[in-house]
Write a structure and sequence with these properties.
With 286 residues, this protein is an alpha/beta fold. 37% of the residues lie in helices and 25% in strands. The strands form 2 sheets. It has a 7-stranded mixed sheet with strand order 6-7-8-3-9-10-11, sandwiched between helices. Strands 2-1-4-5 form a 4-stranded antiparallel sheet. Helix 4 packs across helix 5. It starts with a strand and ends with a strand. Bound molecules: adenosine-5'-triphosphate and magnesium ion.
């Protein structure tokens, strides 16, 4: 296993109240595979990925559990080591590319900064070649010209490509993508997904993909983790999950997918009955 999350608990503190946003979550990501976390808004998907990245800030705190990456527990290893793993071997793509790109610097400069930080042995010339390669790899048209472009002059899909190029520039073993396509239109969405699949084929990258969209899950996932109110209620291979869902919550989610011939047009997961407490059912973790 490349990554194993074991019994992770991440809480947010407000006055007397403790919100266990991630509550005893366990799952694993095999090398070269795509694992999807799916669940409705507020179920703890982002907090799970931010916990892995070490980006939980006050009033949040990782309470307990293990995050084992390549045999090393990221919650226990010394800070310097962890910093280097998180920077070089795990990369993250966020939902809103504009919030993680700096509007005042060119695209090329920002990818170059990532390389400077994490691959300091490279010369300036070598870095330039790598940046152009990264832009080519993500299918950016006219990479030499785009190198000198500012983010606001790019389309949403192109910005997302820059984010992926930045994330891939260090050739991470694990790429975490938190709803990377939600803000994009359907055609661009498909292109970005295809691009990630291509990177996976070429570089053997493992992907943790977070989404509301079960259509996307069906297209890319090897394994699926279903989250509900901070808990994992079901874990299965994509095939098993779609053909034989066991947990009532998963069944409800799958029922909210549009089927041809039905009028209902909903692929978002906000259609699940809120009056049911799905945690009262036994977990179905295979
Ligand atoms: N900075 C924060 N301060 C306090 N509580 C937070 C903070 N960030 C998240 N939470 C809480 O943690 C829980 C899980 O949030 P999380 O962002 O992981 O949901 P999500 O599954 O990613 O939802 P979405 O699909 O809307 O992105 C929620 O109850 C949320 O209110
Ligand atoms: Mg989220």
């Amino acid at each position: 296993m490349l990554l194993s999350v074991k019994n992770l608990v991440t809480c947010f503190y407000a006055d007397e109240h403790v919100n266990r946003a991630v509550n005893d979550v366990s799952f694993s990501i095999p090398e070269g595979k795509t694992v999807c976390i799916v669940g409705e808004s507020g179920s703890g998907k982002s907090i799970t990925s931010l916990s892995i990245m070490g980006l939980i800030e006050r009033p949040g705190k990782i309470e307990s559990g293990e995050i084992i990456f390549n045999g090393i527990d990221l919650l226990k290893a010394d800070k310097k080591h962890i910093h280097s793993i998180r920077g070089n071997e795990i990369a993250m793509i966020f939902q809103e590319p504009m919030s993680s790109l700096n509007p005042s610097y060119t695209v090329g400069y920002q990818i170059d900064e990532v390389l400077k930080l994490h691959q300091s042995h490279l010369s300036k010339k070598e870095r330039y070649a790598k940046v152009i390669d990264a832009l080519k790899l993500v299918g950016m048209p006219y990479p030499e010209e785009k190198y000198n472009e500012y983010p606001f002059k790019l389309s949403g899909g192109q910005r997302q490509r820059v984010m992926i190029a930045m994330a891939m520039a260090c050739e991470p073993k694990l790429l975490i993508a938190d709803e990377p396509t939600t803000a994009l239109d359907v055609t661009i969405q498909a292109q970005v997904l295809e691009l990630m699949a291509k990177l996976q084929r070429e570089k053997g990258t493992s992907i943790l993909f977070i989404t509301h969209d079960l259509g996307v899950v069906a297209g890319i996932a090897d394994e699926v983790v279903v989250m509900y109110r901070g808990h994992v209620v079901e874990k299965a291979s994509a095939k098993e999950l779609f053909t034989n869902p066991l947990h009532p919550y998963t069944k409800a989610l799958l029922n909210s997918i549009p089927t041809p011939g039905k009028v209902k047009r909903k692929s978002r997961l906000d259609t699940v009955d809120e009056s049911v407490d799905y945690l009262s059912f036994p977990k179905e973790i295979r």
